[in-house]
Amino acid sequence: MDNINVYYTKLNSNFPKEKFDEYYNELPNILKNKIDRLIGQKPKLHSLIGSKLLSIALNDYNYPKEILSNIKYTQDGKPYIKDTFYFNISHSDNIVICACYKSNIGADIEKIKTRDINKLRTFLNKEEYDKLSTSNEQDRLFAEIWTQKESFSKLISKGMNLSFPEINIINQTISYNNKTWYLYPLNIDDDYSFHICIDDIEQKIYLREIIL
Q1: What is the number of domains present in the chain?
Q2: What is the pTM of this model?
Q3: For residue 63, what are the domain limits?
Q4: Do residues 174 and 148 lie in contact, with contact meaning Cβ atoms separated by under 8 Å?
């Protein structure tokens, strides 16, 4: 798997219950239990569809469906299949994505929406905050910065335990602890920001929309 492969779907506002039940019943108990622990129908649906996209990706790469039973979780909740298949799942509003690669990968998607920039200071360094303060597209710019930092955080399995102001982004790269990672923006929908983070440069990305 030399290329980055991204599976994504756009959900309807009223996802059919019979289809939810069908996909749910296909999952191993570890993923069913994860869905059951979530509160609210939308988080449950996001988790279910993320697992469905992962299942489709695994099938494309000729992995047996039983491998889903081998999923484990890092301390910050990132799912992984040890030494076998690298992926990352993200969702926002009505879009769910699953990004796959030959080595560790982080991915994050965020719907662009109006925010109070004064409440965002804790996620930004001074240069980023100053740039955001003077931007004519504050909402879009913050979503871009956020997905860049969050995709990196998910890559190194730190989640919100990582100090976001310490993540410095320069020309679609991140330098952290004397190592460089590379960011790749993707446009699935103009109302969303989406970034992938890996430790390789100049990789091809293939998008595949899955209609569910």
Answers
A1: 1
A2: 0.92
A3: 4-209
A4: yes
